[in-house]
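Box 3.1 — From sequence to structure: SRPBCC family protein
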Amino acid sequence: MSAVDSELAIERTLDAPRDAVWRAMTDHIAEWWCPRPWTTEVIALDWRSGGRFNLAMHGPDGEVHGGDGMLLEVAPGERIVFTNALGKDWQPQAAQPMAIVGMFTLADAPGGRTLYRASARHWNEADARKHDEMGFAQGWGICADQLEQVARRLKETADA
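Predicted structure (token representation):
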């Protein structure tokens, strides 16, 4: 856990420029959002502050885990802040598996790369511990690797 006891975070330097990472994050979310072999179904996604997101993650054995919430802040090329504690029309909802405020931040790194940080802030330390035990670092780390793969492909396509 981070210095804030209720926050879990991963940081990576991705081998792609920030604009490619941003495009991968927003235009290709189904390609990186959940660890393979799971897949992502985009049900609703309104990329603006106050916009709704609703993503369904489908497992290889027919499992389905929903991800419904609200985008609190969308700062293009820099940051996305979201929560699963609010649903459509800003209505409080029972978040699964626990309520979080999630953040993705991007910054330029040397050599045309991108500093990527993904974090989940929890209402209390117990929920943060539970999320950690569920495999936060591994799962969100795999997603960061997948995001990098998509961003590198977008960069290579743009350079071709």
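Summary of the box: The chain has one domain: 12-159.
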